[in-house]
């Protein structure tokens, strides 16, 4: 599976709907280069205004050869399809199905990239490829680190190549990704990665499972929240070394 995410900054107009600039262009570039038989599911979380209707699904579908739709809760994952996080809900993976989470905002956003990548890491482990593209602030860095911890592969757009470098720079510094590449190199890299044999399954930290449940909107007990707190401290210390 390939999980592609991008948080974007600024506004541009497309067919009467407003979309963040920079990142949509990056997603369009990738969409035009996915093969029609791409053997993976593509999940996208992008920070869009909740009050405006988005036509991003139509834009990506017209641009490339993979159909793109806004995800619906309970949908079955399928290869050769792009699922986009709808406004106001976290896009999460549970087994072979999509869950739309109503949990708290992360990085001041819902949908947020970290919950999506984290759920993919817990669900799919070494079968996951996480990608962080151009964007502002730090959403995606923690989720990408989770993918690495659970045996998946992490990819970051080179900050020097990004329209907005803050998000890829944070991911680069905090998650120590396997690949740091220009946008033009990502389609070829993804094609190679999804055709490789996956590694051995790795047990994810229990705190990560709790974080996924919280993102779904489920309540966590004090013991569970304490495990998240301890895990967060360790992550912060590791990131600042």
H-E string? EEEHEHEEEEHEHEHEHHH
Domain count: the total is 1
**What is the CATH architecture annotation?**
3-Layer(aba) Sandwich
Content-based structural category? alpha/beta
Number of strands: 11
Molecular structure report:
Mean pLDDT is 83; it is low at 6-21 and 222-241. The two termini are 31 Å apart. Helix 1 (23-31) runs parallel beside helix 2 and helix 7 (206-216) packs across helix 8. With 241 residues, this protein is an alpha/beta fold. Helix 4 (141-149) links the parallel strand 9 and strand 10. The strands form three sheets. Strands 5-6-4-1-9-10-11 form a seven-stranded parallel β-sheet, sandwiched between helices. A two-stranded antiparallel sheet has the order 2-3. A two-stranded antiparallel ribbon has the order 7-8. It has one domain: Rossmann fold, CATH 3.40.50. The relative contact order is 0.15. The chain contains eight helices and eleven strands. Helices cover 36% and strands 18% of the residues.
What labels describe this entry?
single chain; 241 residues; alpha/beta; Rossmann fold; seven-stranded parallel sheet; two-stranded antiparallel sheet; 8 helices; 11 strands; disordered C terminus
């Amino acid at each position: 599976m390939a999980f592609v995410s991008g948080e974007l900054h600024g506004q541009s107009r497309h067919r009467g709907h407003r979309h963040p600039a920079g990142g949509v262009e990056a997603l369009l570039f990738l969409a035009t280069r996915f093969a029609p038989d791409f053997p993976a599911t593509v999940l996208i979380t992008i920070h869009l205004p909740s009050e405006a209707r988005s036509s991003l699904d139509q834009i990506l579908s017209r641009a490339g050869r993979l159909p793109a739709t806004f995800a619906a809760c309970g949908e079955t994952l399928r290869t050769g399809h792009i699922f986009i996080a709808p406004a106001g809900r976290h896009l999460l993976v549970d087994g072979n199905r999509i869950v739309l989470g109503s949990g708290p905002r992360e990085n001041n956003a819902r949908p947020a990239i970290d919950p999506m990548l984290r759920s993919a890491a817990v669900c799919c482990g070494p079968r996951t490829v996480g990608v962080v593209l151009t964007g502002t602030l730090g959403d995606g860095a923690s989720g990408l680190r989770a993918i690495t911890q659970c045996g998946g592969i992490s990819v970051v757009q080179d900050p020097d190549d990004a329209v907005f470098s803050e998000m890829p720079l944070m991911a680069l510094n905090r998650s120590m990704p396997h690949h740091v590449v220009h946008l033009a190199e990502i389609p070829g890299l993804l094609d190679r990665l999804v055709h490789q044999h996956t590694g051995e399954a790795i047990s994810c930290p229990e705190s990560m499972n709790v974080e996924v449940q919280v993102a779904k909107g489920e309540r966590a007990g004090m013991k569970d929240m304490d495990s998240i707190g301890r895990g967060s401290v360790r992550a912060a210390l590791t990131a600042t070394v």
